[in-house]
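Deliverable D5.2: sample structural annotation.
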Amino acid sequence: MLSYRHAFHAGNHADVLKHAVETLIIEQLKSKEKPFCYLDTHAGGGCYDLSGEWPQKKAEYLDGIARLWPERQHWPELAAYWDVIATLNESELRFYPGSPEIARHLLREQDKLMLMELHNQEIEILRRHIGSDSRSAIHHRDGFEGLLALLPPTPRRGLVLMDPPYELKEDYQRVLQTLKKAMQKWATGIYALWYPILGKDADRSRSMLELFKYAGFPSALVAELEVAAQPDEWGMNGSGMLILNAPWQLDGQLTTLLPRLCTQLAQSNEARWRLEWLAKPE
């Protein structure tokens, strides 16, 4: 199934959480001079025009990045994130970067990007945005299969961002199976998995995390943000990031950041956040 287009949801509360975590990890990797590699398994188009037809259908960015952007001077911990957005916008907020565009702006000359996208239209948009960057390698392929084929990467330091659409319920099993195999091939990599928190009748995030808890990973950190009460049926009230091999001090950064994001992005009094180690490194 290839109907999912991220432009409908660009800049929403889930993007803010995902891209804040991505930025914090990349900045940690940059603290050392050694080069590193960024791998994105479901890269999408790379950049989104918030005034376009698809983002305007639901205008989810109005309850996401649009709430934070005017107050960005009060969020110095996300300075790198703001810098990327600022490079795309002269004055008012119009363009929003996807995860590969954020990485492209933040990575240094010695670092590498490996981007995967299966959707025929999205891959062409991605190539237009990023294909001219000599540091990048863009692959028109399934991200689950592609990740395992490309590991271990060169250089051997780096971050994998996995952001599947979860259109198929099998995706929840595939992320676990893929990450277990990925860790066997590249045990020192950092893996950041995004997942949605859906209505009670549709949500599979709890059962997925339970499987991860007992899967034997040496390090697994969960960061979640729910902006409203969980509905009974359909709808996404929140999302989470599962980080394997989380870099040092990331949990401390998120302990400070998550409650502030929760307050700023809350859509009801039931908004909440969670930070938990499913497996804490010794």
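Annotation notes: The chain is about 35% helix and 20% strand. Residues 6-279 form a domain with the Rossmann fold fold (CATH 3.40.50.150).
The annotation will be released with the project's public dataset once the embargo ends.
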